[in-house]
UniProtKB/TrEMBL annotation:
GO terms for molecular function: thiamine diphosphokinase activity. Its EC number is 2.7.6.2. The lineage of its organism: Bacteria, Bacillati, Bacillota, Clostridia, Lachnospirales. The keyword NAD does not apply. This is Thiamine diphosphokinase.
Length: 216
């Protein structure tokens, strides 16, 4: 198993998600707590359930529990359901993880979920958070050259936020280019860039960055 989908309990535009899923294939699907209700609405085959299930419709939960592997956690625990789902996906052998429902009105959850992607990066695997307006992933020097094709990028804008204290990167093919630039935490210089050439090239020389391909 290599490509895993996690559905968690943030905000998901179901109509958009159905369209997005039509162009995706996954080897394994994990529903984290109330993400199960979204998975049910999306008609997904769920392979694993986890959470305390206090906010999940009982009828929906009973339907899936009868034929799906599951694990029940206490409501008060050290890790969020999304974090537990990420760790479970890694244990199941995932090398490429996509998460739906990781963003929403609770910015604390959104920021924490982005931070949790580092767990995957530290294992040398890939992780992506996707919603109707954002495609979010991490890049480090270990990833080499990363290419964003203008004709297939997720949205008009590309923003970069340093996740580690010391970051050095170069950008080619963008409206605003950089050459071995020292990007410090707290700076907004890499917000709302745009791919101008046929492809934009990101090269991280040092550190870890958050890349957001976004649209309004």
């Amino acid at each position: 198993m290599s490509k895993a989908l996690i559905v968690t309990g943030g905000s998901i535009n179901v109509a958009w998600a159905k369209e997005w899923l039509d162009n995706q294939t996954f080897d394994y699907c994990i529903a984290a707590d109330s993400g199960l209700e979204y998975a049910d609405k999306l008609g997904l085959k769920v392979d694993y359930l986890l959470g305390d299930y206090d906010s999940v419709d009982k009828d929906v939960l009973d339907t899936y529990k009868s034929n799906t592997e599951f694990e029940t956690y206490p409501k008060e625990k050290d890790y969020t359901d999304t974090h537990l789902a990420i760790m479970t996906a890694l244990k199941k052998g995932a090398t490429d993880i996509y998460i739906l429902g990781a963003t929403g009105t609770r910015m604390d959850h959104t920021i924490t979920n982005i931070g949790n992607m580092k767990v995957v990066a530290d294992c040398g695997k890939d992780c992506h958070i996707v919603d109707e307006h954002n495609y979010i992933y991490l890049l480090s020097e270990a990833d080499g050259i990363h290419i964003i094709r203008k004709d297939s990028q997720y949205g008009r804008y590309v923003s970069i936020i340093p996740m580690s204290e010391n970051v050095s990167l170069s950008l080619e093919g963008f409206k605003y280019t950089l050459d071995n630039y020292e990007l410090k935490q707290g700076l907004s210089i890499c917000q709302s860039n745009e791919v101008e050439d046929e492809q934009g090239i990101i090269k991280v020389h040092k550190g870890l960055i958050i890349v957001l391909e976004t649209k309004d």
